[in-house]
Amino acid sequence: MENKNSAFKEFISPILVLVVICFVTTFLLAFTYGVTAPIIAENTAKAASEARMELLPDADNFSPSDAEAYVLEDGKVYVEDCYVADNGTGMVVTVKTNSYGGMLTAMVGIDKDGAITGVKVTDHADTPGVGTKAHDAGHLSQYEGLTELTSDQVKSDSSVQHVTGASVSSGAIHKAVYCALAQFDAMGGVN
Predict the structure, then answer these.
(1) From the CB of residue 131, how many other CB atoms can be counted at a distance below 10 Å?
(2) Mean pLDDT across 145-172
(3) 91 Cβ partners below 8 Å, 6+ apart?
(4) Per the count of CB atoms within 10 A, which of 26, 117, 151, 154 is most buried?
(5) What distance lies between CA 135 and its chain's CA centroid?
(6) What is the pTM for the complete model shown?
(7) Across the strands, what pairs with 83?
(8) Helix boundaries (H) for the chain
(9) Per-residue pLDDT tens over the stretch 60-94
(10) What are the residue ranges spanned by the domains of the chain?
């Protein structure tokens, strides 16, 4: 009998303790997620709304468009969402594209005449200090006022310059802007 009791203490007891610890930890993580997920979603929506107002300051409010999302031929660049200003001043298009560090999300403001009002990178995994040079306001401002790009490749488009040393990130942003303009054209502008 003592061997069975000893075996239980030596082998079974530690396993049971670990199983209980795992269940308690899992419960606490699930509870924490349940509490924080709505807060995170609310903050994300608020940040996106503020970015839209920043990119298209003449807008009064935005409504999501139900137009079919534009996708570039390679499928790696696509419109995630498109919000049209309720007062008809333009739209803000959110585009996902493949960058050096992974997926990059950019928002592009376009006025009712099809001119870019601003570009903002909202999420990325590019290398700080190298790839992120292409995210600088000075670099992104070169797109403002443009109504078309001659190519989806930044190096073959004479209307803008790419950042030396961050050509992949520059290219990703350029493709995002190109895709946003294509979305504007596919929708026939702002109705």
Answers:
(1) 23
(2) 83
(3) 56, 65, 82, 83, 84, 85, 109, 110, 184, 187, 190
(4) 154
(5) 13
(6) 0.80
(7) 64, 92
(8) 2-7, 13-55, 137-140, 167-186
(9) 999 999 888 888 877 889 999 999 999 999 999 99
(10) 62-186
In 3D space, the residue among 102, 107, 91 whose CA is nearest the CA of residue 186 turns out to be 91
Dihedral Cα 191, 81, 86, 42, nearest 10 deg: 170
Q: Which residues pair with 119 in a beta bridge?
A: 108
Task: Identify the sign of the CA torsion 187, 140, 156, 80.
Answer: negative
Q: Which of 105, 188, 181 is nearest to 143 (CA)?
A: 181
Contact 56, 109 (CB under 8 A): yes
Contact yes or no for 181/174 (Cβ under 8 A): no
Alpha carbons 65 and 134: distance in angstroms, whole number: 29
Q: Facing residues of 116 across strands? A: 110
Query: Do the beta carbons of residue 119 and residue 105 sit within 8 Å?
Result: no
Q: pLDDT for 11-51, tens place per residue? A: 888 899 999 999 999 999 999 999 999 998 899 889 888 99
* Torsion angle (degrees, nearest 10) of CA 186, 109, 157, 183: -10
